[in-house]
Amino acid sequence: MYNAGAQATVGAGGTGSELAGRHLMEWSLLPLLFGTLALVAVIFFLQRAAERRRTDTLQSLAPMLGFSFDGELKKPGDAGLDASLTSFHLFRHGGAPRLHNLMRASNVDGEDLIFEFRYTVSTGKSSHTVEQTVAAFRRRAARVPGFRLSPENVFSKLGHLLGGQDIDFESNEVFSASYVLKGEDPDAVRAFFERQAVVYFADHPGWSAEGAGEWLIVYRASKREKPEDLREWIDEARRAARVLDPR
Questions:
Q1: Residues 106, 165: one domain?
Q2: Residue 6 has pLDDT above 50, yes or no
Q3: Are 55 and 100 in contact (CB under 8 A)?
Q4: Do residues 170 and 112 share a domain?
Q5: Is 127 helix (H, G, I), strand (E, B) or coil?
Q6: Is 181 left (phi over 0), alpha (psi -120 to 50) or beta?
Q7: Which pLDDT belongs to residue 161?
Q8: Does any domain span residue 236?
Q9: Which of 52, 73, 108, 123 could be a cystine partner for 100, CB 3.0 to 4.6 Å?
Q10: Containing structural domain, residue 37
């Protein structure tokens, strides 16, 4: 006898062999899923362990370089930094800005800070973290005109063609081809850089810098320095800051 109900059920759900095949496929994917999750967990813990070792190394190095140390990951506003420093453009990059491995030293001229700064860049469905070692210098009684210096790239050249600001120097084409320089007062920034900074940065490509009032920061974008190279890097950052000291 023809059974319409049974026929409808089979038609809607498929034959028994088809259902068994689906279940077998679903079960066969479970090892792949668990294996992927396990791999992600291993990578996460290895990264955490590497970060912990890095922080421990920097904590041991800091007093030898004359700095105090705070390894905790913090928002810029919670790290005890001066508000005029955290207003710099660097701290407004991307999302979730954080700094850690903060070294701090006071001196007769002001204050030196070395820290690692990170932020997240989101591009639709994906995101990535950008991190760099940053040196910040406060020099009492300095009056640095507000400026931002970064290496020239394809996007900055396109922005310049579209009317974006870029302070160039006819006297130094190497600097003008290597860097983008912007400022709140272009004439003041031009005079400030013409003294010695143009020549220095033309000979030392790849730096990013920002300044205003008593504060200067210098760094190499998207690059964290190795602990074993940090002493030399700090010396280089201080040399860069000296040519930007207006006093």
A1: yes
A2: no
A3: yes
A4: yes
A5: strand
A6: beta
A7: 65
A8: yes
A9: 73
A10: 4-50
